[in-house]
Amino acid sequence: MPGFLDGRTALITGSTSGLGLGYARALAAEGCAIMLNGFGEADAIEEARAGLESDFGVTALYNDADMRMPDQVTAMVDDATDRLGKVDILINNAGMQHRAPAEDFPPEIWDDMLAVNLSAPFHATRAVLPQMKERDWGRIINTASTNALVASPNIVGYTATKHGILGMTKAVALETARTGVTCNAICPGTVRTGLSEHRIDTYAAERGKPKEDVLQDYLEQKEPYHQPMSRFITIEEIAAAAVYLCSDAGAAMRGAAFTVDGGWTAR
Ligand code: NAD
Questions:
Q1: Does 124 share its domain with 208?
Q2: 257: which residues sit within 8 A by CB, 6+ positions away?
Q3: Residues with CB under 6 A from ligand 1
């Protein structure tokens, strides 16, 4: 059955797992061709790529660029443009997190985090904008976080880079405001993925309890990770926000911080 993204193409960074793969599957379900990117076991990546083709009948490719390397980021955009024919949708989603108080935060991890969470989205955005403007259609979606809007302790690099990507989102949105290219950020609350699981592991370890016994307490804690809805957000709920942003209905969303956070930032 044709989807509303038939004929469109998407490049999604950090899409070998978690939210990125969720975006890929949701866009592919609407007929969009996909280029995946990210780390992981070769077999698992191939399974994810082939699954997009077999489940949704779309072209699905993979590029192994390391988002810490600006040259590889721009080469990835060129590769997607060559092999998919164009890039209509760019989702800057690759991300990393590290927990430590600021005085103990390793400078080399700070540098990597800036590169992956903030600079790679800039390099990719810079590289795709000319072709999107030329066709007068494009969607740039940055996966930010509730930590783009409010801080949490012991994740100074994450909070700083996520605030930064929201600023970049707004700037690009204003520069493209009179074109068919939109730029927005999705700000998820806590979704259970590889990236967030360590927060829960730490919470359980601090209390000396098995992880499954502390999940509800974790969600209901007042600080620092408070999700009033009191359940985890699902990957599908985040991916649906991206599908909306890619639709015609999303055309007037410009520079938004699209929170899907169970009320986290409503306080
Ligand atoms: P995840 O660990 O499943 O996904 C992270 C992805 O980034 C993986 O595909 C990984 O291979 C890729 N990646 C990491 N470093 C890379 C590099 N140098 N080069 C290329 N790819 C790299 O975790 P996730 O939760 O799906 O994270 C995706 C995004 O969602 C991140 O930007 C994260 O900050 C954001 N986010 C997650 C949550 C949550 O609760 N899970 C909440 C808010 C925001």
A1: no
A2: 144, 148, 149, 166, 169, 184, 185, 187
A3: 14-20, 37-40, 66-68, 93-96, 116, 143, 145, 188, 190-191, 193-196
Q: How many domains does the chain have?
A: 2
Whether 81 and 197 map to the same domain: the answer is no
List pLDDT tens digits, range 127-171: 999 999 999 999 999 999 999 999 999 999 999 999 999 999 999
Q: Are residues 212 and 93 in the same domain?
A: no
pTM for the full predicted model? 0.97
Residue 253 CA, distance from chain mean position: 17
Residues with Cβ < 8 Å from 102, sequence gap 6 or more? Answer: 156
Residues 247, 175 share a domain: yes
Question: Does 243 lie in the same domain as 147?
Answer: yes
Test site for ligand 1: of 49, 71, 93, 258, most ligand atoms within 8 A of the Cβ: 93
Q: What is the pLDDT of residues 210-230, one digit of tens each?
A: 999 998 888 887 666 678 898
Range of the domain at 210: 190-232
